[in-house]
Amino acid sequence: MAEIEEVEMAAVETGDTVIEIHATRPTTEISEEENNSTAEIENFVQQRLNALPGKHFTSRCAPISRLPARFREAVKTYYEPILVSIGPYHHDKQELQAMEERKWWSLRDFLGRNDRVKFHDYFKEIRALELLARMYYSEIVYMPSNDFILMLILDGCFILEYFLKLEFQEIGALPFLTGWNISSLPTDMFLLENQVPLFVIHKLFDTNVGSSQPCKGPCPLLKLIFKYVTQHTIYNQMTLPKEPCSSFFHLLHFYRACMVAMSDLEVEQSKLALMNQSLSLGTETLSRLKSWFSWRQKRAEECDEEESLKGDESVEEESAEKNRAIKGGSKEGKRVIEEPSVTTRLRDIVIPCMSELCEAGVTFKRKKGARHMFDISFNNGIMEMPLMEINYAKKIIISNVVAFEQSQPFLVSTIFTSYLGFMDELVNTEKDVALLQQCGILDNFSRNAVETADFFNQDLAELNYNDHYFLDLYIKVRTYSDSTWHSTEQS
Fold this sequence. Notes:
Blueprint: E1 7-14, E2 17-24, H1 32-50, H2 69-72, H3 98-112, H4 119-127, H5 130-135, H6 145-167, H7 181-188, H8 198-209, H9 220-229, H10 251-260, H11 271-279, H12 283-310, H13 313-323, H14 354-359, E3 363-366, E4 377-379, E5 382-385, E6 388-390, H15 392-407, H16 415-426, H17 430-438, E7 442-444, H18 449-456, H19 471-490
Parallel strand pairs: 3-5, 6-7
Antiparallel strand pairs: 1-2, 4-5
Helix pairs in contact: 3-6, 4-6, 4-8, 6-8, 10-15, 12-13, 12-19, 15-16, 17-18
């Protein structure tokens, strides 16, 4: 047993109160009970460290991430499944258990497609992928090995059977696809938190058909999925990427690639390419950016001269406020507008909403022959935009693609994030939604202009705008609108 510890006591007076402070000196001996407790803690820490995926001094961005609370709580229904759980994050939710029974039906049907391949064969193949599959999740999955593998098989077969039954018109074997389930199931499969790795689905598919060769391009599985993914596009066409299955993390990533491929972007690029894109705006865009700031500086100086001639302090203050286009203007003397660096954030350059742009003389037209949904142009006061179709299901998919882009810093371009940010600038109220519809740019199947405006007006303050696809467009629009308003004021 340890010796009794020595105790020192000191008194500190604080007004009428005396506080006793006890300080203990550590003893040199540790009790047997303390020894056991320390061993338990050390054992717990070691087990916890052993459970971490990857190697020492390495970092990773898990492709299947949990969303930060600020996104999920804002519009919870956009990010959480309402019908079926795929993967571990929502696996134990009671309200989703009804569909767990259907997964066993799907497994039975999938096994029946090739009697020569037994369940043991699938289990063996997926067991070999278990560690890699666990590393795909941003949170440690506390499931026993066999349970985790079985979950991957059941979920993977459920997804495969959904697409196979659609392909072979076995709709009668999908009795749960009735009423609201028809739209809920597909959207549940495109939620970021509701995914299994695509390589798991691919392995199950290849094992069933007896293929062991790695695919070098779009394999039969991707072609099958693509055929039915296109039914949920927000644009009137999508492109099947040329990359193999190994280029895509999960179904949501593949959906994004089908849209981004149309803009002639690579699905993935090296980190070096991303770094170059993030740190440099390119000589042409940077030149435009500098010209815009130079024009604003000149306008500020001209306004100062005009205001000094007026001699009316109240008029001078009002005019100064109106012409102070960006932060950094000074109320005393000439306003100095700093020339931007290559890392200038886009949020320093905003554009007016659609109704204000129309008042400034901008004309909006539906773009004919658009190459992709991001093919937006602005020339000589005319904004041309491709048709966008929006409904509740497509709002969910867009929100999750944006969440995926924000969780993966190695993607070439946060193009969906840029698009949603652009629409956030363009749409402030239901009036702007109505104008987009009148111009033939927006098909609002939700029938509710207020809800559509609220969707575009989601809080994007935490999103990363450094890599913005529409920066050049913003500069053109802002330059035109500022010059138009100045001409109106002069007249």
